[in-house]
């Protein structure tokens, strides 16, 4: 069994517990409602602009299918191309190995601090904590990541980690931590404060780390997509660049970027194109870092690859469209998911990376409405994977002795046996019609007894009608 | 690690694999109307709150002079190979002969050419080729004046990658895609122009 050594936020409560307390925070719900509504509207308008959007989605899905089907070949091809271009490739089977490699590389430079481009993968492996233990300070340079770092909080959204904070909360934080008492809550002024705060670091720090949005197997190019220019700073100014990338982020061909550079920005920030995209290949003479390392990270991904239904989860390009459209996320916010990856994609990715035993409430953090599948730019059938994982959670519980006496398990088993034959099914139906009368009000059961009470605590249960379809059918045939 | 990946590929094979690109039906070219394409490019760049102007090949120096005067820029860093004919008198232009980063950061702005433009998204692509210089010079100064030739503007995103593939070198160039001035959406998901990259972007299309 796998251990949640990463991804999962330590001591985070189960989803239903975290969600309950999040729902009571009215400020959070206001911030989340406003932000997700804004981004949904922007995405919809730039997606509607493209007449070939569905073709692009299919192309994106097929390219990712290809990637996963030939992952071994493409990874070796990428390694060769990067090595030829003067870079170095490292393989890390888990978070621990990746952190060790990065720490060793930084130690070799003699630097005690690094600048970081926002990267979910480094959040997943908890690189910052590992570096701190090794005496290295990691400075987050993305505005939202900086806000989170200064506030000592956890991210609540993969694209905009500080989405749960509004401008006046950010202003208060900057006033205190940057010693700027006269700062207003104008977003332009807040951005300018961050510019000034980080400029000196960009000019002087010798080592940077980043993630990677894409890497091209045939050319060895690595691609980082961003908005603020902090990415360009980290990828251009330091002497040494270390990028950590999940093995599934690879694309086979250069021309595949023509598809993904349309899918990603429109699905993500709802822009036709993000302000800055950097693509580099190994090291470039007299331009940018003269030492480049790429760390290829597995950390549970090959287990996801081995699951026929779950595999499509690895198509994910971390755009966050599913998160912004999810009615559950909109109300609970990201912290309730207790993982680096929240929302619908987190509900399927987290349990697969750490094992369902350690995140068994997440596959249930959904109403299965399917809005996430509709917006996914690489057509991940999230509801299908959710149901698949629920099945795994139940199957896993059934292997444990205590399940023999579990009411829900016994009830479901009895129901399965009853529903398997017509005669027992009809008998149960008639018995139910008689037994339900004390609970029925206007055709619905609002407060059910026993186990049914768990269901009716949240929603009504339709009562068994006085005449079943089977009864009606028999009667109709008699009359003819 | 590779052995584990190879086993996983077989174990998780669902048998519904599609060969990518055999079924690709997305748009790879615009309709070829150049005037419409240039107009769209200008419009889309401007939507990112960049300023867009047009000039002729003969009028480049004059156009640059006017623009820099309006912006109040007096000292500009330029790539080593930028044509002398582009440079108007009265403004100091410093060629990037591997200048120190603090010198570049201290400039009023940068003047550069571009590899290509994408009309559909209002994007400028730099590849370190002619008239573009190192990545650092278009990043550190707070102002970027970019000159792009009309014939270098393509219609849609896939065209840009197809074209870049034809000019790819060994060793490969670094690429920077620029769509408007630097921006952030981190505060309440509203786009704010101007964070770490140039906060002001002016573009001339040369016809």
Overview of the structural elements:
The complex is a heterodimer of chains A (480) and B (207). By secondary structure, chain A is an alpha/beta fold. Chain A is built from 22 helices and 13 strands. Chain A has helices spanning 15-23, 26-48, 53-69, 71-84, 95-109, 120-124, 127-133, 143-151, 167-177, 187-204, 230-236, 257-268, 301-305, 321-325, 327-332, 343-354, 371-375, 382-398, 407-419, 422-435, 452-456, 469-479, and strands at 88-92, 113-116, 137-140, 207-210, 214-216, 221-226, 240-246, 250-251, 276-281, 291-297, 440-441, 444-445, 461-462. In chain A, the strands form 3 sheets. Chain A has a 6-stranded parallel β-sheet, sandwiched between helices. Chain A has a 4-stranded mixed β-sheet with strand order 8-5-6-9. In chain A, strands 11-12-13 form a 3-stranded antiparallel β-sheet, with no helix packed on it. In chain A, helix 3 (53-69) crosses helix 12 (257-268). The longest helix of chain A has 23 residues, at 26-48. Chain A starts with 14 loop residues before the first helix and ends with a helix. By secondary structure, chain B is an alpha/beta fold. Chain B has one domain (50-182, 190-206): NagB/RpiA/CoA transferase-like (Rossmann fold, 3-Layer(aba) Sandwich), CATH 3.40.50. In chain B, 25% of the residues lie in helices and 23% in strands. In chain B, the strands form 3 sheets. In chain B, strands 1-12-7-4-2-3 form a 6-stranded parallel β-sheet, with helices on both faces. In chain B, strands 8-5-6-9 form a 4-stranded mixed β-sheet. The longest helix of chain B is centred in the N-terminal third of the chain and has 14 residues, at 34-47. The interface between A and B is large, with 100 and 76 residues.
């Amino acid at each position: 069994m796998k251990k949640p050594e990463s991804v999962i936020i330590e001591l985070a409560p189960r989803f239903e517990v975290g969600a309950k307390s999040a729902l009571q925070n009215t400020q959070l719900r206001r911030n989340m409602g406003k932000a997700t509504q804004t981004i949904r509207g922007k995405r919809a308008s730039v997606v509607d602009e493209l007449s070939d959007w569905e073709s692009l989605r299919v192309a994106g899905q097929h390219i990712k299918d290809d990637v996963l089907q030939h992952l071994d070949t493409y990874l070796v091809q990428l390694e060769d191309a990067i090595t030829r271009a003067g870079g170095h490739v490292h393989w890390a089977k888990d978070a621990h190995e990746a952190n060790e490699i990065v720490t060793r590389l930084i130690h070799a430079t003699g630097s005690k601090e690094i600048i970081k481009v926002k990267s979910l993968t480094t959040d997943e492996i908890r690189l910052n904590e590992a570096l701190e233990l090794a005496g290295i300070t990691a400075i987050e340079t993305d505005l939202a990541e900086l806000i989170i770092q200064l506030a000592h909080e956890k991210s609540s959204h993969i694209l905009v980690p500080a989405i749960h904070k509004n401008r006046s909360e950010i202003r208060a934080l900057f006033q205190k931590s940057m010693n700027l008492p006269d700062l207003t809550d104008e977003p332009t002024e807040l951005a300018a404060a961050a510019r000034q705060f980080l400029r000196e670091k960009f000019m002087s720090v010798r080592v940077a780390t980043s993630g990677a949005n894409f890497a091209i197997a045939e050319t060895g190019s690595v691609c980082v997509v961003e908005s603020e220019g902090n990415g360009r700073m980290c990828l251009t100014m330091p002497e040494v660049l270390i990028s950590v990338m999940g093995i599934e982020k690879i694309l086979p061909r250069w021309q595949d970027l023509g598809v993904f550079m349309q899918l990603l920005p429109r699905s993500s920030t709802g822009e036709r194109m993000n302000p800055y995209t950097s693509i580099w290949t190994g090291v470039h003479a007299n331009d940018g870092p003269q030492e480049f390392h790429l760390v290829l990270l597995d950390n549970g991904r090959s287990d996801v690859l081995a699951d026929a239904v779950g595999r499509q989860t690895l198509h994910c390009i971390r755009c966050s469209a599913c998160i912004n459209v999810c009615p559950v996320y909109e109300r609970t916010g990201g912290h309730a998911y207790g993982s680096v990856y929240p929302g619908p994609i987190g509900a399927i990715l987290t349990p697969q990376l750490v094992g369902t035993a350690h995140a068994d409430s997440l596959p249930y953090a959904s109403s299965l409405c399917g809005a996430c599948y509709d917006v996914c730019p690489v057509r991940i059938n999230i509801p299908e994977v959710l149901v698949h994982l629920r099945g795994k959670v139940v199957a896993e519980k059934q292997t444990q002795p205590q399940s023999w006496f579990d009411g829900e398990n016994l009830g479901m088993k009895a129901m399965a046996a009853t529903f398997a034959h017509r005669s027992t099914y009809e008998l149960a139906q008639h018995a139910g019609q008689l037994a339900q009368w004390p609970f029925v009000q206007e055709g619905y059961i609002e407060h059910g007894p026993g186990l049914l009470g768990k269901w009716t605590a949240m929603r009504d249960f339709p009562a068994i009608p006085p005449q079943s379809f089977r009864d009606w059918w028999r009667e109709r045939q008699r009359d003819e | 690690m590779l052995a584990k990946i190879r086993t996983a590929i077989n174990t998780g094979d669902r048998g519904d694999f599609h060969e990518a690109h055999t079924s690709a039906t997305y748009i790879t070219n615009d309709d070829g109307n150049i005037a419409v394409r240039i107009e769209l490019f200008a419009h889309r760049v401007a939507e990112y709150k960049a300023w867009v102007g047009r000039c002729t090949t003969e009028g480049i120096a004059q156009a640059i002079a006017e623009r820099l005067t309006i912006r109040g820029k007096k000292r500009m860093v330029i790539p080593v190979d930028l044509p002398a004919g582009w440079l108007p008198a009265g403004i100091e232009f410093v060629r990037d002969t591997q200048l120190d980063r603090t010198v570049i950061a201290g400039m009023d702005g940068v003047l550069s050419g571009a590899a290509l433009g994408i009309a559909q998204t209002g994007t400028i692509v730099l590849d370190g080729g002619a008239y573009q210089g190192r990545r650092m010079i278009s990043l550190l100064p707070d102002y970027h004046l970019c000159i792009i030739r009309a014939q270098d503007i393509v219609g849609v995103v896939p065209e840009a990658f197809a074209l870049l593939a034809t000019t790819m070198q060994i060793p490969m160039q670094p690429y920077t895609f620029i769509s408007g001035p630097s921006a952030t959406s981190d505060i309440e998901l509203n786009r704010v122009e101007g964070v770490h990259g140039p906060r002001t972007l002016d573009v001339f299309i040369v016809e």
